[in-house]
Please model this.
Amino acid sequence: MFRRIARLLTAIVMIASGAVVGVGATAGTAHADECYTWSRTLSQGASGSDVTQLQIRVAGWVTSGERLSYDGQYGARTAAAVRKFQAAYGLTADGVAGPATFSKLYALQDADCTPVHFSYAELNRCNSDWSGGAVSAATAKANALKTMWKLEAMRHALGDVPLTISSGFRSYACNSAVGGSSTSRHLYGDAADLTGSPTLCRLAQQARTHGFSEILGPGYPDHNDHTHVALDPSPYWSAPTCGI
Ligand SMILES: [Zn+2]
Model:
């Protein structure tokens, strides 16, 4: 009798602490309500804004050099990205986004829709409102969100190693202050400079299969102390020291 009560109390404490620190199934449901909730199972042939929301979250699970479109059309490439996502998280890799896939996505996202291991603050050390860049503040912030989901995929593929971002969005003023290129993708909000571990070359090599079309790393001028990843309409990779 007492043991049963003790077990019950332990369970209650675990649920309560899970809610506080934001982990576990209970918190996952809360995340769904706060950020975004899918109301139907999605598979190839589906279209709509709910597909676009899915694409934002799985765009980091592509093949080398591939960039997934955020077009709201659930085609073969979206299905392939969903399969890679499912396989990476131990789910049945059937390319169909149903309850199990959504549950994992809910567990991976914060209330503001950023992935759990990244934040808007990390992607913008320049100003508070994302203004002053090459695109509107809303577009810069949306671009940063897409970049964060690719980084979340890359982080998981690397074995859940923490990634350190030294620079993200920059206004023209912030970009000039650090001597950035006048056409820098940092002005669009879709670039991130990575430092620390794992090695800069490992980061540059890994970025190739996570939807980044611009990768600049060791051996490229001014990139010996960080690896730069971004979504450039004109794909370009260069990290000569790393064989890229
Ligand atoms: Zn950069």
